[in-house]
Amino acid sequence: MEYPLTTLIEKIRLIVPLSDADITLIDGLFQPLHLKKGANFVEQGQVCHQVGFIQAGLVRYFVNQDGDEKIYSFGLENDFVCDYESFLSKQPCRRAIQAIEDSSLFVISSVGLQLLFDKLTYGERFGRIVIEQIFVQTMGQLVSLYTDSPEERYQSFSDHYPSLATRITQYHIASYVGVKPQSLSRIRARWAGKDYTRISSPE
Predict the structure, then answer these.
(1) Is residue 26 within 8 Å of 50, Cβ to Cβ?
(2) CB neighbours (10 Å) of residue 120?
(3) Number of helical (H) and strand (E) elements in the chain, helices listed first
(4) Which of 70, 114, 164, 196 has the most CB atoms within 10 Å of its CB?
(5) What is the per-residue pLDDT across 37-58, written as a single tens digit (0 to 9) for each?
(6) How far apart are CA 6 and CA 20, in angstroms?
(7) 52 and 80 in contact (C-beta within 8 Å)?
(8) DSSP letters for 130-186
(9) Which 3 state secondary structure label does DSSP give 100?
């Protein structure tokens, strides 16, 4: 199924105003990409050469260390997807990005993205805001990995991805939280107890 660029254009329009010429430019620079479930947007050890926008589907960002996988983020509909560290430095990725579901994206190359920044009416502002957002998001993920407890990671998952639990496996959630699936079950049970206590307590 082919998806129109409407959602992507509206996403960009939330950041900067777009003229008809800007929309034509975007339409010419982004190309459709379809990923089957289990296919990689980029593999660990490869250089990431493109930025994607997820029209439909779901991806995970993960690191594989000696056969042990650690998920540190997810990307779903209306999210941009990229290993920005590799994309900007042209160095091999230290992580992989993989489709958890069949996914439809629009992608733009590094050359195309530079053209977008140069030719878009408010391209410089768009580039600056996007880079700022990426920096804040990346720093938040990094700090969380090193400072948050598993319970706090689970709370973060519930807050940031409220609709995701029905689309992924317990293994994926446990990997994101940083525990074994059995430990995740205990954490969820404790949180369920807290929720019940809060609901059932008198005013």
Answers:
(1) no
(2) 21
(3) 8, 8
(4) 164
(5) 999 999 999 999 999 999 999 9
(6) 13
(7) yes
(8) HHHHHHHHHHHHHHHHHH--HHHHHHHHHHH-TTTTTTS-HHHHHHHHTS-HHHHHH
(9) coil
Tokens standing for residue 10: 């509206």
Tokens of 134: 């990426």
Edge to edge, the sheet with strand 96-99 lists: 40-42, 96-99, 58-65, 68-76
The token pair at 131 is 């880079």
* Rounded distance between C-alpha atoms, residue 30 and residue 158, angstroms: 32
Beta-sheet strands, E only, within the chain: 31-35, 40-42, 50-56, 58-65, 68-76, 80-81, 96-99, 103-109
Nearest-angstrom CA–CA distance, 129 and 136: 11
Tokens representing residue 182 in the block: 């059995």
CA–CA distance, 178 with 150 (Å, rounded to integer):
6
Give the distance between the most distant pair of CA atoms in the chain: 60
pLDDT digits (tens, 9 = 90+) for 129-184: 988 888 887 778 778 877 888 888 888 888 888 889 899 999 999 998 888 888 88
Say what the pLDDT of residue 193 is.
Answer: 64
Gap between the Cα atoms of 117 and 162, Å rounded: 33
Q: Which residues contact 193 (CB under 8 A, 6 or more apart)?
A: none
pTM of this prediction? 0.86
